[in-house]
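Sample 1 of the test manifest.
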Amino acid sequence: MVTKTYEEINTRIKNGEAVVVTAEEILGIIDEIGIEEATRKVDVVTTATFGPMCSSGAFLNFGHSSPPIRMEHVMLNQVEAYAGLAAVDAYIGATQESVDRGYEYGGAHVICDLIDGKQVHLKARAKGTDCYPRKEIDTYITKDDINEAYIYNPRNCYQNYNAAINTSGKRLYTYMGVLSANQGNVTYSTSGELSPLLNDPLYRTIGIGTRIFLGGAIGYVSWMGTQFKSGAPRGENDVPLTPAGTLALSGDLKAMSTKYIKPAVFEHYGTSMFVGVGIPIPVLDEDIMRHLSIRNSDITTNVIDYSDPNHGSIKTVTYAELRSGTVDIDGKKIKTSSLSSLKKAREIAAELKSWILKGEFMIQEPVHQFEEGNTLKGLKDVKKEVK
Amino acid sequence: MQNMFLLTFPSEESGQSVTYDLIKMFDLKINILRASIESDAKGFLLIDIVGSLDRIDEVTAFLEANHVSATRITAAIQIDEDSCVDCGACTAVCKAGALYMDKDWSLQFDNEGCLDCKVCIEACPVRAISAVF
């Protein structure tokens, strides 16, 4: 079996000798020369995704005013940020809606205005303490005026997500877009064979500490994502058949570009954020290359009825079917549409590839790997406190 | 194909019978597709001129002389390409198939196929689509 170490791959990157391709390009190479030869020849394969992810936000440290304030209630452009932290720390969540414009302007817009270098109106209130006497401040900040500003997304890069349909007679407005009545359309959100966790289904190279592309800057996998379900059922190719692993990601907001991270608005639902993520997969051996050979026709997902409160599945389809433009349901051809941008994901995979080829981006071995067999808990409706 | 024009009237002209003049003076067959008056008394009229546009220069000159601006409309919506991320959310609701993804997964718009339902405007997560009228 062909094997390589992280050190060997990084030395080749440093020397400008590494062979780097995207997760789409590798498919043609495997067709041509096979798994073994492709493992020998290719050092790194880049994966990427650009989809709406509600579980996004940013930590900010505003710096101390004179006299100082211990901010208890923080508004940024009329969007509330969580300030139950130290004096001038706050977390602005992507889905928080503004008090004046509702979901048309929310936390994701504040984050992107900061990335764009725009002035953001900061208003904070406090009760005043002996050590922080000030009770209110009304000022304007930019990303250059404040100390730290970093994106922290508790959940991203869902490893296989459901497709959505609506069997009811009424149009539904959801985070999966506008679902037409009477099975009028199917929506899905994935970059499929280019998607990070579908190319490393057993999390061999993607773990805590993995260096990534996040919103146009360098970022890191900081933890397992919320709702991490590595114990989801899997096919013979190790790819999960239902939603499974997720990643918590962080990166420097100040170095990001709104070309790769953008606010999203879902009608009658709320604010969200498109987050561009690119993750390199080092080709350590043939097993990794075998996983990288995944194609849209090998990945399946369930079409979930969003008009059913229990979100029942009405059909299992392949990503190739979803990408074809229609899926067959009850003998009818139903139009399929993507919510994540494959075009942007391709741009990100190509950008990350160019960083590695230029020797600017080294592959970081995870410092801790995710556990297998993790399951999810539901929330119980407990009526009485247990004493 | 329709020959749609959006006529914009300044507030002081809103009372004028321009449509009647156009029919009478230029022998045009006009369908009024939409008409509205804003709160500031500015008026909008969306018309479709059926048949030949041979005398269109004279028509616009006449309108301009009466302080009415005429803009040729080729589609009910416009897409801001700088904002669009080519996600595809708008194509989900486009029953006419006028919004579609090409082979490179870039959004394309076929204005001739557009049925003017405008559901795409609310379906667009980056608010890149706006109504022309």
